[in-house]
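Hi there. Long-time user, first ticket. I'm pasting a complex I've been working with (about 474 residues overall). I'd like to know whether the download I got is complete or cut off, because the file seemed smaller than I expected. Thanks.
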Amino acid sequence: METSFYGESTFQSKVNRRTSPKLFKHHMELINALEWRYATKKMNGQAVDADKVDQILRAAHLAPSSAGFQPYHVLLITNQELKKEILPIANNQQQIVDCSHLLVFAAWDNYTPARFDSVFGNMISTRNLPTNALDDFRKQMEGMLLSRSAETNFEHCARQAYISFGMALAAAAELQVDATPMEGFKAPLLDVLLGLDQKGLKSVCLLPLGYRDASNDWLVNLKKVRTPMDQFVIEYK
Amino acid sequence: METSFYGESTFQSKVNRRTSPKLFKHHMELINALEWRYATKKMNGQAVDADKVDQILRAAHLAPSSAGFQPYHVLLITNQELKKEILPIANNQQQIVDCSHLLVFAAWDNYTPARFDSVFGNMISTRNLPTNALDDFRKQMEGMLLSRSAETNFEHCARQAYISFGMALAAAAELQVDATPMEGFKAPLLDVLLGLDQKGLKSVCLLPLGYRDASNDWLVNLKKVRTPMDQFVIEYK
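Hi, the file is complete. Here it is re-exported in full:
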């Protein structure tokens, strides 16, 4: 077994996109969108259309998750007074109040039998299965997950939420809606403010949606920084 | 402050897409792709073109991450003998050997000064900044991250890897490449097999890429299951 770095020489699209852009028509949209997006630092207050917010939420909703449990929710916040209360909790990052829609991704604090009731009930009714069709699968999942600590399970749920967070980011970018992925906030304080403890949820990341104020955003014209591709991808040949 | 569920009545796109599909032309691609994709259970062995794999890797590479550190790598495995060794480690899920390209997302096991050297060096050279331009930012990040446990930092890195995992999933779906997001594998054994400990990495999730064998895949025709949208999104008005 040899390992090697993913060389620029194997990086076909760089060449092909220059010589034959149409070849890549179908998938250029996501790549272009991801090149276009950046963590917007200053928003201009313009509201995102409800239709677009809806599509972003739909993308988040369609994200896959471990065993299909979707162990997280997306909170949609448009109330300006509430956003003002969140502002200091989010280290005074102004996008919190300058965005039109603030999404909060909040993961389950644990797996529980009640949550399994809900998840398996939904699977059975959606797929029109006999009531006991998933009993073995449920037993297997319960055996694995209910014996673990709440902390371990929460981390597992948080990871699933990040897939959804990624889908929302991708959707926003494709819609040319600006967004700022944020982890810099005091989650325990936000959880209290939003009453998440009563819901068995913990906030994990924020996504303000809006439009860039390009003339007042220090980041907008800076080059995107990424680990060089030939170091990011490690090829096992 | 009132909280409410995100009602079907506010779910504009359902109505609009029926009456005016062209309105949504721009963003339907991602939503359609996410509707189309599923966790493929049986692949047919057909190889994914290098160009497409490349685009999927580019989407993974473009994912945002906390402070732009990109604290993970994507391993690209095409060696069939190596895939056979991974098979039992991944609970004999046949997609491991039936896919043409197996992606392994592996997160940093910790933040370290050497890694900060590399990350900040790259930021400085990419943006052509004075050598000391990021000193304050670096001090702030080091103060926050180097005092935490390796375990906490690894979990943080793993979450970032999941955003990238989401982007790869979205890209594969847009390219109509099938993929199976997988967590069901023995990470410590895979880490040893791939020599990840020497690289300071830990595997967190797998993504076999290939094409569905629809006639032998029990999942392909089952309805996608998701938490009802009006429960998934919690609206704060």
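A couple of notes from our side: Chain B touches chain A through 83 residues (CB under 8 Å). Strands of chain B lie at 3-5, 72-77, 101-108, 178-179, 201-210, 233-236.
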